[in-house]
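Good morning,

Both structures are done.
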Amino acid sequence: MIYLGAGLIIALIIIIGVLSGKKANNNSFSGKHVASSGLVSGALIGTLVGGASTIGTAQLSFTYGLSAWWFTLGGAIGVLLLSFGFLKPMYNDDTITTLPDIITKEYGKNSGILVAVLSSIGTFLSFIAQILSGTALLMAVFPINFQISVLIILILMILYVFFGGVLALGKAGLAKTIILSISVLACGCLSCYYLKDTITDSSVFPTNQYYNLFARGIVVDAGAGLSLIVGVITTQSYISAVLSAKSLSKAKIGSIITAIIVPIIGIASIFVGMYMKANYPDINTKLAFPLFIVNELPSFVAGIILAALLIAVIGTGSGLAMGMASMLYKNIYKTIRKETKNEREAVIVQRIMLVIIALIGGLLCIANLGDLILNWSFLSMGLRGAVAFFPLVTALFFKGKISKLFIYISMVGSVLITIIGKFVLPKNIDPLFIGLGFSLIVLIIGLVVSSINKRKVSNEN
């Protein structure tokens, strides 16, 4: 019955995708102001609610409880700040559709390429998180080892892109988001009900560990939240979603809806992880959510939910990989080869890049460089934020006041500091704080130098 339920939901999503295939992709906004607040929130939720916010959150809550809320809580705060603090100057400029567009317009073509390349490092880490989420789903259902499950997930992601990503077309993307959100919320309610006799038992769930937003330490968990906030603000998919709104007010309404729903989904996933801790304490933590579905739900329903999760993971992962491949093609390959009108060559090159990206991601997973899904996700968002957050602030709100040299130093230095700090700093220190601090200091120096130079020019005149 579990396979029947899974087959049914996959078939349903495919049918919806085919029927709406001639329409625009809900997740591929062109920058035109056409989307309702519902579609904006659907795109935002569909991007935020994936393997990390469900499987990854349940995995972390298995050990730390409420501390796992920072992924969805930080994401919600980031969405609100994006719409209420950053959107207006972007929305009113019809030449802006992407983050590199914003940076390029203020600081030149090379700065746009640099931010795209450096941000792709963070995107790649998020891609790894999706692979790990997918392997958890497969290993919970099929008697296969980790290496085989990685291979299967990579093949599915590659095929998804090669066949046009039909499952993400048209209304299928929204249907997938609705089914997944309802499924996760239902699992959360059920696990909370099952926990009614033990949820307040401190011998099972020590208060300081399971009911503390900063259970891993204030710096670590505050850093996790900050990673999501700055990461969302500087991630293209979220920018595209809010820019697609028919009006600023609709973008804000869509963001408010997202900010309400996503943390609730996070809480639901936390309850699932805690239930599994209380009842299955010896399992592999990343299998907490999939095993809850398999062990605690009717087989047919379990199949539906597992299929919805798998589609979300595959869709998100393949989208991330394709985005990186497109960026590498446009900003590196075409720069070397110059302009080409051969569309077939473009498709072939991007697909080769996609396969290479997938293989590297798979090898890193198999190399066992750490399989805590949210750790990869937090680092991914943090890197994107370290690279682009303050340059974005200056490009939007301090136009013409900083030399591009300081932007280059800020972007390269912050990402290097964040990456190196992840490996050399104590675990109770989040390198994102240092990376962002470096970026801020460099840009403040840039403002001061620019101000001094302008005064000199003014005095000479």
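Second structure follows.
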Amino acid sequence: MTKILRCFASLVLAAIALTISTVSIAQEAEDSGPQPAWVDLSAKERKEVLAFAEDYKAFMSRAKTEVSFVSEAVKIARKAGFRELTGKSDLQPGARFYDINRDRSITLIVIGSGDFMDGFRVVGAHIDSPRLELKGRPLYEKEGFALFQTYRHGGIKNYQWVNLPLALVGHVDKKDGSRVQISVGLDPDDPVMIIPDLSPHVDQDFRERLNRDVIGGEELDPIVASLPDETHSVSNAVMTYLQTEYGIEEDDLVSAELALVPAMAPRDVGLDRSLMAIYGQDDKLSSYAALRAIIEQGTPQRTVFAFLVDNEEVGNVNNTGAKSTYLVDLMSELIYRRLGDAYSDHDLRRALRNTKVVSSDINPGIHPTWPEVWEAGNAPRLGHGVNFKLYGGGFNANSEFIAWTRAYLDDAGVAWQTATYKGRASGGTIGNSLSKDNMEVIDYGVPVLSIHSTYAVSSKVDVHLLYRAMKAFYQYEN
């Protein structure tokens, strides 16, 4: 019996030892895995990351649409010595210009010391974000409320836009050529608009709706007012207010670009303040990083561009989207200005062939509650740096360009990772539009949670690393 007990005890001890060994190995493997980029930062670098984040949040509190992004970007650019590109601009090395396309996209340029035909360096990103826009005849009255009819710019989950404060921002263009700016709801003292949800006491007939159909697109109409005028009309009271406050008639709303955006200010997330919740980070995040990166250029070897463009969320369309000829036309103009009558289309085509592009956009990061939507080895993680987008299906940058990109990121000490969607191949953002002109293009960005929602979450260190990546791209000479 004693011998049996000893044998049993030995087996138990062996099992415990094996368990401890297994746990130790697993812990060691976990410890040897990728660590957040914060870990490798010096105290000075951490201060730089936090200061950059404060600048970013302040900018995003003002830049709610592509038009306001452009106006805010011009302020920053002019302080950094950029001037509007004109027919008389002197294209000397080191000269700094900006060019605005119809108020809705902007390109910043620093002239390099080399030949234009040796190619340009371009960082491209988009400055429009998912939102609600007013229809041409938006105002109507129902059940004692005045409401606005809306439609959606970009893909959203409708239910995320109810029960939260909304600001009305944008402008109205009048027949006499004047423009009226409107912003209601961003100032803490302003009123806000809201799309109220059904209370749980009365929603029984709607509980079978699934996911994105919980709120229908035509149900995203915010309350504008509820106090009638002397004619007992709430909608008339609204028009009287618009006429008195802004000089706007109802027909003027047909030639308006008015959007409803979340009225919440950017906020830090987490007790450690390492994350940020901000509306519109898709993709003003990349665009702001590009803006900051280019204003810090001296005189580069190759002429550099920050191409910050509209309408990506609806397919890169219209003359302010990436499918427009605007960027190629701008490059052609620069080459013509330098060569004069000796210019030929061959010069432009040679420049395009030698141009390198970073198409930057955010993408979903691995989620702590639903990690299974990613393959862990191909999932980008918040706080781990820039991620290459490896789409597959012919959408990837070629391997040579990926290797070249790895080289300058490693030289600059920029942490990077990869992102490949699970079970499908696709290519997004503005990169495929630019590659059609035979430019060398790679897509990279940083991971963000709750993309296309009213309050997306990013990591402060990722935003700073993206800016550093873009600076390194502009300056790399190999």
